[in-house]
Amino acid sequence: MAELVAVIASTHHPFYYRASTSTGADRPPFADQWVAKIERFRATLTRARPDVLVMVGSDHFHQLWLDNMPQFLVGKAPVYDANFYNEEREFGLPRMRLPGHEDLSAHILTSGLDAGFDLAFSNELRVDHSITCPIITLRPEADLPIVPIYTNIFAPPLPRPRRFVQLGKAIREIIEAWPSPLRVAVIGTGHLSLELGGPRQFGEHGPDPAFDRKAVRWIAEGDLEGCLSEVTLDSLHAPGNATHGFMDFMLMMGVAGENARADHVDHLDLFHTMEAYFTWYPNGAPA
What we know:
Blueprint: E1 3-11, H1 16-21, H2 31-48, E2 52-57, E3 72-75, E4 79-82, H3 85-91, E5 96-99, H4 102-114, E6 120-122, H5 129-138, E7 146-151, H6 161-176, E8 183-190, H7 209-221, H8 224-230, H9 246-256, E9 264-269, E10 274-280
Parallel strand pairs: 1-8, 2-7, 2-8, 3-6
Antiparallel strand pairs: 1-10, 3-7, 4-5, 9-10
Helix pairs in contact: 4-6, 6-9
């Protein structure tokens, strides 16, 4: 059977690539600290020696829109193009071409349907920065096959937070039941408090530092019930208009397991958002 060797959750800041590659006067003052944190975070995936990456993210209205938004979608293609033109223009992100893993995609799709999740799929999925930013930060060689799983965090009606957790738990069971000797890492990216286009977008900190501190504690301690007792679709509007991306973090807590304390926890308070990084080793830290 396949071995789940790492579960990783992070934010996916699109300006990291530009900040980390800039030099001289163009390099922001926080770049060195940011790069150092990312390199420590990257080492947690490298230690796990994965063969394939399951990538959980969300389309930012690039390919999916309000009139065609599946709640959960599995990419099922031999290769994935990235990024989109506006991401190249606005964020300086490079064009990428990422190999897929059709066998694992098919296993997740059919097993997920059998488990009661009405998963959509796409043979023509193009991925955006919710998938490519964690590739850039965690596996810049982009040499491992991926299985993208997209969640709906933008287009009402949204799945409830508990459904994200349930899917995370199912993904772990499905991977561990895959009849393959390969080593699998699951990487998911979401948001803490986040405001896009609103009055709190460019504050001194993220729009709701109190929520961010609580969210980091929930994730680090694997406190799923504490998190579920407070987080609802309605409550996620208060910390910022894009905070529903936190449900992807909740999905990753489901993959990691109830009360699973993270083996690596770090964060960085940028001027408009809290960046956060977590790694779990389900079978113990690799040597």
